Amino acid sequence: MFFERPESGERAVLVHLHLDSEVNREDPREFEELVLSAGGDPVEFVFGSRATPHAGTFVGSGKLEEIRQIKERHEAEIVMFNHALTPSQERNLERVLQCRVLDRTGLILDIFAQRARTHEGKLQVELAQLQHMSTRLVRGWTHLERQKGGIGLRGPGETQLETDRRLLRARIKSILARLDKVQRQRDQGRRSRKRAEIPTVSLVGYTNAGKSTLFNHLTDADVYAADQLFATLDPTLRQLELDAIGQVILADTVGFIAHLPHKLVDAFNATLEETLNAELLCIVVDAASDQRDDNLHQVLDVLAEIGADKIPRLYVYNKLDLLEQEPRIERDADGVPERVWLSAKTGAGLDLLLEAVAERLGDDMLNATISLKPEQGRLRASLYRMNAVMQEATDERGCSQLNVRLPRSDWNRLIAKETGSVELIQSA
Hints:
By secondary structure, this protein is of the alpha/beta class. It has 3 domains: 92 residues, 3-Layer(aba) Sandwich (Rossmann fold); 171 residues, P-loop containing nucleotide triphosphate hydrolases (Rossmann fold, 3-Layer(aba) Sandwich), CATH 3.40.50.300; 63 residues. Helices cover 40% and strands 22% of the residues. The protein is built from 14 helices and 15 strands. The strands form 3 sheets. A 7-stranded mixed beta sheet has the order 6-7-5-8-9-11-10, sandwiched between helices. A 4-stranded parallel beta sheet has the order 2-1-3-4, with helices on both faces. β1, α1 and β2 form a beta-alpha-beta unit. α1 runs parallel beside α4, α4 runs antiparallel to α5 and α5 runs antiparallel to α7. The radius of gyration is 28 Å and the shape is elongated. 33% of the residues are buried. It is found in: Cytoplasm.
């Protein structure tokens, strides 16, 4: 931010400390993947251990000197820490190392900035970056005194730091207002889907679990998919037709990661609402990952943090081609689909996923053939108005035989208003 920055391929020294005070420790391998995903070139990984972080420089004086020598030997342009650093720690480290220092939060923000493609995504990233930057402005302006005015403009003035903070506050306020407008538009779209009784299925999961590849296979979309962390940043919605259910909306969302920075959770509130308003969460898991269980716990923690832990869920174990196993559906004690094992890359098991989703959503749907007498035209009109009639025929008595599909709650509400009886010929 305050040092010259090349486009990509920056040589980076990575630092990871094992701290006795840390309960949930970061994964060094995942951190290296994050650096590679950001376009960095890791030249060496420095490990160490301490009881607690050093208040001023996070690492001790001996380790700091070791990092400095490694940085000079490799002519590295940046040093990255697999931890959250305070603004003063970043400032002190940069003073000693004479290069940019980035912590885990700053690295994730940088990746998000590279991945943002839509207007909303760019606004969300900028908001998170500005909030993160506002506490670190001082390091760029410690060499400046107060601004000096000319004749007739002399006075106490305002420091450059204060000017920048004021401009930052104004920009943050502007972005929040624009995101609020986007959120209202999303709310309007969700209300329209709710009126049309179209359920939403949201794909969630750890980053690089294969959500976008799965999304593309199911919807014939062309969402960017790559074997890298945070390949997807902007949410994408597509319609999907399911047998016995009809139309559903499938949402591809941003991947989660261990200890996702709170600034990002707050900034991406509008995006995460697609998850909050879903009727079913398909939690995509990298079945071939050594960290499979830990990653799943991290996803569940984020879902609980955003208030989505009560939404029905279906676990989708992806990348089965790497395990050389057969696709399958695993059910709970009541016979309800609980896990689907598949490969989004090869397409094996996608039919099982659609079957499981239809079964989970179909629990609250009525699929039936009913017979209506000519005098029950009002009920027939209501069913057509709700797009619930799949097919219609007339029998020899002049009665309408309708194949209907609609939520049971809506059916019960219609029947409660009906004075005459409705003949149910067949129900599934």
